[in-house]
Amino acid sequence: MNQDSPTPRAENTLEIARPLPVEGTSASPRTPNRQAWLRFRRNRPAALAGIFLALIIAATLLIPVISRFDSDHGSDIQFGPPGWQHWLGTDVHGRDLWVRTFSGARISLLVGSVGAGVSLLIGVLWGMVAGYLGGRLDSVMMRFVDVLYSMPGIVFVIVLITTLEGHLARLFEFISPRLGNSARMVFLFAGLGAVSWLTMARIVRGQVISLRNRPFVIASRALGADTRRILLHHILPNISGVVIVYLTLTIPSIILYESFLSYLGLGIRPPQASLGTLIAEGASQINSVRVYWWLLAGPGMLLASTLLALNFVGDGLRDALDPKGSGER
Amino acid sequence: MPLIFRRLAAIPPLVVLIASLAFFLVRVAPGGPFDRERKSASPEIERQLMQRYHLDEPLWQQYGRFLAGVFRGDLGPSLKYRNHSVTDIIAQGLPVSLTLGLLAFGFALGIGIPTGFCTAVWRGQWADWGISLLVLLAICVPGFVIGPVLVLVFGLKLGWFPVGLWGSPLHAVLPMVTLGLYFAGRIARLMREGMMQTLQSEFIQTARAKGLSELRVLLKHAFRPAVLPVLSYSGPMLADLLTGSFVVENIFQVPGIGVFLVNSSINRDYPMTIGLVMLYAILLLGLNMVVDFSYGLLDPRTKSSQ
């Protein structure tokens, strides 16, 4: 999908890194954001991946609604191979895999983006406060991050999910009995967000420290702006580029983490399914007698291509927003 | 070298801190280690078990007991496998996980570094796109998909390698690939990025201007600074690899310690979880220290700032 033609004109990253030539000075003002957008669009793989991603999101929203089959209702065709009736075959309960794959992708994307959102919220707040206020508070906060870094994240997730699940399930049961299953999902978001904000906090802190004593911040402080205002109105807009880039790279890792948890049986609960649970189900059916390859093929390919697209978009955004390239970590 | 000793001295208190954090963290979760046995055992037996493992004492008293044990190097008995102490179980599984982890580390470096190096040199060509796609694929496909597929193809269909268990070198091949592939991908990306940045710096232009052959420029001048990001990633990576992987050990029935971390957290086998958390912390802190010091060897510029 990204067979960039090897023409001599090739707009490789090195080329993009240089400031764009001024073509028609009377054109719209070249704000940094606009320049970044232009650079992103000229990065063909990234732009294509963005379009592909939009298509996938649309498909996950539409296909489960318009399809003839329901993702939860089984039929008599157990382990039916792909065909005209069921495009991706059926699973052990005779459920249509085409529909299940796309509704699973919807849940995976939801978990990924909400989890990444939680990690963004904690990480950015933590990093901004530590970096801006500095001093003793900074070192205490960052030592805390270091300590959490040296613990295996999986222990946290398991403890968090098991601890809070019961409470939340009861709460949801109280509000509406039908929401019982959502409790688990909410806690997956929180748990996954809670283990993946550490790197974000470190990155944000580093950025804030380099911005803290810039003239525009000092000027605003001299004008009497309080800390909250400086952080929200002056620092935050300046770090948003780095944060967005890291966010697009966090979503795939959270989707993968969720699929790992589903593999352990701690993730999404049946009858709901994520791409991870579908793949885990398919992987458990592999044996030497019969190969139900379609159980793995559809969900696996959708997961891999979604993650690929997210990675390409993330890389493209990084090249576009931060032309000098700051690298991972 | 007083700095080394200072860094070394900082590790034990940190490990105790982390172990304490883990101690209280695992106790927060509801349920107990003997929940599974409740059906078959009477409340009386459960009370006796709680008493035997001091779980009926107030938490601070248990904590004191635990700390005293840590200083003696005794992590207590496993609450699931009650005839074995935690240190026994770790000592039994660790060599296997270490071997497999080191093999996977070698595999990841051996595949990742040349791949990243070549893709950076061939930047923008079709080979770069093709290989980079494969690299991303290695990162994106979870191990519990790669594992069964490898088993199916190389174990069952072709019959080249055994499908599970541990023993001969042949047994290690499939687990090693499954475990190492993701890290090989990460390393390839780091290496590519490092290489691209290095190739833009001025000393590379100087080296080229001196008329050195391109191969010499790449291998002698560009490689060393470019490999630094890989070096700093290999600390956490090794800690991850050496403590075993649940997925790989589960698929291939490898008797390592990776399975225990997940199982003990789910089963509330408190001493086991804490012991493994401590092991991970010690490995991570120690390896990060080694990485920091080897930075100075590879890149003399960083020495003064240490």
Can you tell me the residue ranges of chain A where pLDDT is under 50 for at least 5 consecutive residues? 1-27, 325-329
Given helix and strand content, the structural type of chain A is mainly alpha
The number of helices of chain B is: 13
Shape of chain A: globular
Task: Please state roughly what percent of the residues of chain A sit in beta strands, choosing from under 5%, 5-15%, 15-25%, 25-35%, 35-45% or over 45%.
Answer: under 5%
The main sheet of chain A comes to:
none
Query: How many runs of DSSP E, i.e. beta strands of chain A?
Result: 0
Round the mean pLDDT of chain A to the nearest integer and report it: 76
How are helices and strands ordered from N to C of chain A?
A: HHHHHHHHHHHH
Average pLDDT of chain B works out at 83
Question: Any idea of the CATH topology of the domain at 95-305 in chain B?
Answer: MetI-like fold
Largest sheet of chain B: none
The CATH architecture of the domain at 95-305 in chain B can be named as Orthogonal Bundle
Rg calc of chain A: 23 Å
Give a written overview of the molecule:
With 329 residues, chain A is an all-alpha fold. In chain A, 70% of the residues lie in helices and 0% in strands. Chain A has helices at residues 13-17, 32-42, 44-66, 97-133, 135-149, 153-175, 180-195, 198-212, 215-222, 227-264, 275-284, 293-321. The radius of gyration of chain A is 23 Å and the shape is globular. Chain B has helices at residues 2-28, 43-52, 59-72, 86-121, 126-140, 143-157, 169-199, 202-209, 214-226, 228-242, 246-251, 258-267, 270-298. Chains A and B meet through helix 6, helix 10, helix 11 and helix 12 of A and helix 1, helix 5, helix 6, helix 7 and helix 10 of B.
